[in-house]
Amino acid sequence: xxxxxxxxxxxxxxxxxxxxxxxxxxQLINRSDFTYTLAKYRMQSENERNxxxxxxxxxxxxxxxxxxxxxxGFIMQGATARPxxxxxxxxxxxxxxxxxxxxxxxxxxxxxxxxxxxxSLPFPRIVLPIxxxxxxxxxxxxxxxxxxxxxxxxxxxxxxxWFLFIPLVFLFWIFNQGVAFIFARATVHFRDLSQVTPFISxxxxxxxxxxxxxxxxxxxxxxxxxxxxxWQPINNVxxxxxxxxxxxxxxxxxxxxxxxxxxxxxxxxxxxFFWQAEERFGRDE
Length: 285
Description:
- This protein starts with a helix and ends in a 10-residue tail after the last helix.
- The chain has helices at 3-9, 21-30, 32-47, 56-75, 86-109, 115-120, 127-152, 165-189, 193-207, 214-221, 226-231, 233-245, 254-275.
- It has 13 helices and no strands.
- Helix 5 (86-109) packs antiparallel against helix 9.
C-alpha cells in the first residue's frame, strides 16, 4: 500500500508540508496574536539597550534628514534641479522612504535570521516577514507625527487633507509587505542577496526623488519617459505625501490609484511567491 495513502487514512499529516492557499490564510489569521506580539516585542527589544530607548525611532530619520539635507542642499544650491522649499521636501522624502527601506531590508533577513525558530516551531513562516513590516509600521506612526511637526516649522498648517495620509499609509504598508515577501523568499534561495539588498535600497533612495522632483528631472532628460515617473511607486508615495503636507502643495490624486494597483499587485504576487516555498523554509539547501 502507498505510505502516503496509509498515513492519510489514519489522519496523519506530513510534517512541514505546504497547506493549500485557503488553509494557509486561515492559519495565518489564527496566528495574528503571535504576529502582533512578535512585532511589538522586537520594536521594544531593539531600543531598550540604548539610553534614549524608543526616542531613536525619531532620531534615526531625523539625523538622516539633517545630514542629507545639509550635504545635498549645499551641492544642489543654485542648481535648477533643486526644488523649492528644499528642507521640508527632503524631510518628507527621507522619513517616508525609511519605512520602505527598513521593510525591504528587514524582510530580506526575516527568515534567514530566524532559522532556529523556523526549524523548531510549527507556524506559518509568512508570520515573520509580516511581523517585520508591522514592526516598521509601528515605528512609522510616531515618525510621521514628528515629520509633520518639522514640516510645520516651514509654514505647513494642519488641514482636512492630512486625513488622506490614512489611505496613503495603508497602501504603502501593503506595497512594502509585498516587497518583503518577495525578498524574504529570494534571500533563502540566494543568501548573497542579503549582502546586495542594502545597495538596492540605497539605489532606490538616490533615484526615486528624495532630493529632487522626479517628474522635473525626467522632463529635462527625456520627456517621453514621463510615464515612468508617473508610475514609479515610490515617487507616487513621495509626491502624494508632499502634496498633503507641504505649504502650497498640490496633491496628485491620480497617483492614488497608480499606487493601489502597485500595492495590491505586489502583495498578491509576493504572498503566492512566498507560500509556494513554505515547506522549503528551514531546510538546509
